[in-house]
Amino acid sequence: MLTRTTDTVGRSFERLSSGLRINAAKDDAAGLAISSRMTAQIRGSNQAVRNALDNVSLLQTAEGALNEVSNVLQRMRELSVQASNAAVLNDADRASIQAEITALGDELNRINETTSFNSRQIFSQHRAVSTGTEHADVTGFDEVYDLSAVDSSTSAGQVATKMRHSWFRESVDRVEKYYGITPPEGTDITVDFIDDPTASFAGQVSYGGGDLTFTFNTAFVDADSQGFSVAIHETTHAVMAAAGVDGSRWWMEGTAQFMEDGDSRLQSEIASAANGVSDIVAATIGSTGTFGNDKYAASYAATRYLHATIKDQGHEGGIKAMMQELQSNGGDFDAALREVAGFQSEESFLNAFQQVGEDFINEELNLDNEDIGIIGGFDADKGDITTLDNIVSHVAMFEDQKLGGVELRMHLGANATDTHSMQIGSFNTGALNLTGEGLNVSSAVTTESLLVNIDAAIDYVSAQRAQLGAMQNRLSSTVENLNTASENLSASRSRIMDADFASETSQLSKAQIIQQASVSVLAQANAQPQLALSLLT
């Protein structure tokens, strides 16, 4: 009893001195585990609050810059209206107005280039291409666009514009997302546009000797989903080549089709084959020689079979796991197959496909529904039903952005998935169409054109400021929500971890009384033998 009471007194003293009910795992093992998870959430939420407030400061910096941009544009518009008054202006007057407008344009560029937060440029993230125009940033690649054969007013010009402004970037982004590969940073690629109806291709990528060239034949493509299909197909070739995961022809073509509408070609070839599916499976895709449409279709089907097999082996990404294994092992295709798919070699995989391919196509591939079989879609991965039109409608959003801005990635919570991204566009004179003749007040015609461009620029900047203001308000709500969550979690953790001083003091007093009584009784018990001995003497 005395030992137990002494332990209770010691534990009470420890809790009262530390203020904690749980000082070691033995005090409450489950409570300690729960409180540790709560601590992670609390500290994460507190840091997320600081993140949100930092982002508010960044957005306020950006809005301050845009406020000044608005002032500059308003002054430019005022000068343009003055320059339109041709009845009273002479050449010297126009020259003076032109000088101020040019200087204001230079100021727009300076604000765009130098506005920064924590040494990071907020607006200027663009690169110039050989034509002097701008294009969307693309991960890993340094692109040079040869537009010498393109008339911007034709369909070919629309294709070139979409390729520069959105298609190429979206294609590289999708390859990174679903295949997990990117080209080495700074990889040079030349994008050529030709208009040759006698050529046998709509698009092709050549990568001999390490030099990448993407040739787009505008004679066979339009600025619609079919053009994007060609863009993403050939871009897949380019990224795979640059990343070192290229291989046999069936592998290159099958994976490229898996990024676009492979179902349509497979369905078409099955319909035209004398023996249907069996002819497609029998196509010798592992051999050299002519690579006809039947082999393209078979390559896609084989890639779908490999994707499903890899997922059955426990790799959720399917082909993505194969790509990443190839990149890590230096391009050893057989070794990658053994690691992620369980096949001993490329030959053994192709043999297996020829044995089970017909059943796989008939039973596992749905060629009749709306989904096009693309990786990440409904048929291949139980994702959303996907068509090329779906993807292109998303890609079009990039064209609504003024080129050259920056994507802001914000972490606004305690968990890995609590992220948010927003795009801030650039507003240099090139992005606002205020360069060259677009910034000229030498005549009434050019001045009227300048007024139209300035009005469009003012609308754009106003929309950007509205976006920034809305995000600041959203972040304010985020901060309040995080503070509430942190406060309630802290209270809950306190109930688990912290000592109840009233209860512990009561327990200590009780234990001390029992301890003192125990000591007294023990002393009396120890004295009994002495009393007995005193009676005998």
Could you state the CATH homologous superfamily of the largest domain?
Answer: f41 fragment of flagellin, N-terminal domain
Care to count the β-strands? 8
**CATH architecture identity of the largest domain:** Up-down Bundle
Distance between the termini: 34 Å
Alpha-beta classification: alpha/beta
Low-pLDDT parts are 125-134, 396-404
The name CATH uses for the topology of the largest domain is f41 fragment of flagellin, N-terminal domain
Described by the principal axes of the CA atoms, the overall outline is flat
User: What helical percentage do the residues reach?
Assistant: 55-70%
Strands across the major sheet, in which order?
A: 3-4-6-5
Tally of discrete structural domains: 4
Strand content: 5-15%
Determine the number of helices (DSSP H or I, runs of at least 4 residues): 16
Explain what this protein looks like in three dimensions:
By secondary structure, this protein is α/β, with parallel strands linked by helices. It has 16 helices and eight strands. A hairpin with a 7-residue loop joins strand 7 (406-411) and strand 8 (419-424). The protein is flat.
